[in-house]
C-alpha cells in the first residue's frame, strides 16, 4: 500500500494556496494516494532469530501487517555508506548487515513497507542521543532499502517532558531534516509515534501546546468528553474519566509540531496506550484525524497487546480491538474513511495476556480484515521486482522479468510496447535472453474483471557481452563487503574473494582476475593476468570454478596448477581448535572438507560459521554447472550468484547471496530459481 506520495508541485500548491479550507487541503494532498488499510506493527529487533529452515521471526511476518516498524536504532547512530556494517547503529538482530538487507528485501517482496524506528524508551537517555547525523541515517535507510523512518521520540525514556519547548523544537528539527534527505518524491515515508493525547490541547505550562481553533482545545474538554473537569487529573480511576487525557504532561505536544512540520509527515502512529483508564479513546483518534485532514498525513490508532506495562488500568482485549478498528474504518468524526488510516500495535510478537491464542500478528489480521471490508479496494496493484531500474544486462544473459500483483485477473508483460507474456495467476515471471544490445522499456499491466488497470514501468540497457560499461572503477576508500564484486583497475577486471577496503587489485590476494561476462570471476583463459597477481585467482571463494583447474588456487599458489587442491602446499593439516592461524590463505581440513582462512583466526574459531574467518574450498568446479551441483547444506551460506545445488530431487541456482536456512523452494520470491 502506497502512503502519501504527493509530488513537489502538490506541496507547493498546499503551501501557497492561501486557503484555510480543510477539504481543499485534503483533496490536494490525498486524492488517489492511499488505497488500502494501514496495519502497523512494531517488531523489536532483539526478538529476531538467525535464519534457519523455518526462516526468521521477522521474515515470517505476514502480509496483513502492511507496515513494520523495525525497532530501534540509536538517534546518534554511526554508519559508513556502502559498508553494511550495523555494529554502531543500535539494531540488535543476531546477524550481520548483509543478512539484514536480505531480510528487508524479502519483506518488501511481500508488499510490506519496512520502516526504521529511531529511539524508543532506551536510546534518548543521554545528551549524546541528540548528536544526530541525519545524513548517516539517510545513508543507512537507502543502503538497506528501508521505506522510511519512524521517529519514536521519548525524551529520557518517556513522554513526561516531550511538551517542553526545547523538545518540541528538537522533534520539529528531526522531522524536517529527515524529510529533506528522504523526499516524498522518491517514495520515502516519514512517520512518528507520539503520545496518544498529543493532539488534545493543554496551555499550561506552554501555551504553544494548545490550539483555540481546534474542536479539541483545552477550553472545550468538558464538551468533548462529557466529564466533569474536576476529574482532569484522575487518570487511574475505575470510572474511566476521559477528561484525564487533558491532564498529562504530554497533552498537546504535537500541536506545535504539526503547525511547523505537519506537511512533512506521511504517517502518525499515535501511542494510544499507557494513558491511564480513559474509556472514550476514540477521542484520541479524532483529535489526530482533525490535523490529518489539514496536513495530509495518515493516522494509525496505536494499541498495546495486553498487558500494558503501566497499570494495567485499561486493556485492549479483542472486543476493544474490534471496536476501535471499526471506528477507524468508518472514518470517525472527520470523514477519514478511505484516506489511508489504520491501526498500530506494540508489539507483533507479544502474546495477549487476555487470550493466549492471539499475539500481535493475530491482532493485525483481525484489524486488517475489518479495515479491508470497510474500505474495499478493487483497483489492481502491480510492481516490478526484477530487473531493477536502469539495470545493465549483458547480451545473451538470461534475466528475470518478475512482477508482484494484487487484485489482478490478468497480468501482461511488455518489452518496448510489444507483449511478451500473459498470466492468469502468480507467479508472474518471464525469463528473457534474446534481446540485442540497446535500451528497453519493460512494462507490466495488471487488469481486473471491472476493466481497472495498474501499470508499472522500468528501463534497462542490454550491453555487449564484452563491454565493461557496467563494471565500476576500483576505489581505494570503498568497502567491498561481500565476495564477487567486480571492479576495473589498470585496464583489467577483478573480483574480490572476501571483505576488503584499500587493498589494490594486482597487489593483494583478495582480488583475482575475472572474466567480464561471467559471475565466477575465475580468470579463465587469462593466465597472464593470473601470473601477474602471483596466483590463479583464488577461485574457490566464489563457487564458480569453470576453468578446469582444481579450484583451490590460494595465495600460496605462485601460478602452479599441478597440485590437487592445496595451492602448491602439500602439507595440509587437520584443523586444530587450540591453534592460532595468523596467515590468510592457510588451508585446513575439518569434517572431511577443506577450508581456507580469510584473515587471522583465533583458537576455537571453528570452520563452518558463514560469518567467520573460514571459507569452504570448492574443488573441480563444484557448484558451477547443473552437472556439478552441490548437495544443498542448510547450515551453509551461498554468497555467490550462479551457484548450483541439488535439493529434494531438483536443481536450483541462486540469484543473490543466500543465508543459512534459506532453502530452495521456501519462497517463490526468494534467492533460488528452479533450473531442472
Describe the structure.
With 676 residues, the protein is α/β, with parallel strands linked by helices. The chain is 18% helix and 21% strand. It has eleven helices and 27 strands. The strands form six sheets. It has an eight-stranded parallel β-barrel with strand order 1-2-3-4-5-6-7-8, surrounded by five helices. Helix 2 packs across helix 8, helix 5 runs parallel beside helix 7 (254-261) and helix 9 packs parallel to helix 10.
Helix content: 10-25%
Describe the largest sheet: 8 strands, parallel, barrel
Question: Roughly how many Å is the radius of gyration?
Answer: 28 Å
Termini separation = 35 Å
Contiguous uncertain segments of 5+ residues:
1-34, 518-570
Query: What strand order characterises the main sheet?
Result: 1-2-3-4-5-6-7-8
Which structural class best describes the helix and strand composition? alpha/beta
Mean pLDDT: 83
The counted number of beta strands is 27
Number of helices: 11
Shape, per Cα inertia axes: globular
Strand content: 15-25%
Task: List the SSEs and their pairings.
Elements: H1 8-16, H2 22-30, E1 38-44, E2 67-73, H3 97-109, E3 113-119, H4 134-144, E4 148-152, H5 165-181, E5 189-192, H6 221-225, H7 254-261, E6 267-271, H8 282-295, E7 298-304, H9 318-330, E8 342-346, H10 360-374, E9 381-386, E10 391-394, E11 399-406, E12 410-415, E13 418-423, E14 428-432, E15 438-447, E16 453-463, E17 486-489, E18 492-496, E19 511-513, H11 527-532, E20 573-574, E21 587-590, E22 593-597, E23 614-616, E24 630-631, E25 644-647, E26 650-654, E27 672-674
Parallel strand pairs: 1-2, 1-8, 2-3, 3-4, 4-5, 5-6, 6-7, 7-8, 10-16, 20-21, 24-25
Antiparallel strand pairs: 9-11, 11-14, 12-13, 12-15, 15-16, 17-18, 18-19, 21-22, 22-23, 25-26, 26-27
